[in-house]
């Protein structure tokens, strides 16, 4: 698994390549938390273009971040979701807490108000 994290103002962009599962979801959570402590992050944007698989640990990690972000008045978004991961998002209920964007640019535009 590879993680690419970028800061776009108050939005943290997280691209995950590989699998988000019980082997690495805690590591992803820790990396996000570290970045949130460095800068005033309000929104999270997950880019799942290269995410091959996500299990319940990955779902739980995202829900945990949602609760943190929501308490600060922020939002969570997702972009570039493949069919298999899209199905997991729908079945798990993540679709109710994450807005799906057509592109990273669209998400940043909405989240940052530019």
What can you see in these coordinates?
This is Anti-sigma F factor antagonist. The protein is α/β, with parallel strands linked by helices and 114 residues long. The chain has one domain: Transcription Regulator spoIIAA (2-Layer Sandwich), CATH 3.30.750.24. It is built from four helices and six strands; from the N terminus they run ββαββαβαβα. Strands 1, 2, 3, 4, 5 and 6 form a six-stranded mixed beta sheet that branches. α1 runs parallel beside α2.
Largest sheet: 6 strands, mixed
Oligomer: single chain
Helix share, percent: 40-55%
**CATH topology (fold) name:** Transcription Regulator spoIIAA
CATH class reads Alpha Beta
| Low-pLDDT windows of residues | none
Structural class: alpha/beta
Q: What is the assigned CATH homologous superfamily?
A: STAS domain
Pfam families: STAS
Protein name: Anti-sigma F factor antagonist
Keywords: Phosphoprotein, Sporulation
Organism: Koleobacter methoxysyntrophicus
């Amino acid at each position: 698994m590879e993680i690419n994290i970028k800061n776009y103002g108050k939005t943290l962009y997280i691209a995950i390549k590989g699998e988000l599962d019980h082997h690495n979801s805690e590591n992803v959570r820790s990396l996000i938390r570290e970045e949130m402590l460095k800068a005033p992050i309000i929104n999270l944007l997950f880019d799942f273009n290269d995410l091959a698989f996500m299990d319940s640990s990955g779902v739980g990690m995202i829900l945990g971040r949602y609760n943190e972000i929501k308490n600060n008045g922020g939002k969570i978004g997702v972009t570039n979701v493949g069919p298999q991961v899209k199905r997991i998002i729908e079945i798990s209920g993540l679709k109710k807490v994450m807005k799906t964007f057509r592109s990273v640019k669209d998400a940043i535009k909405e989240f940052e108000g530019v």
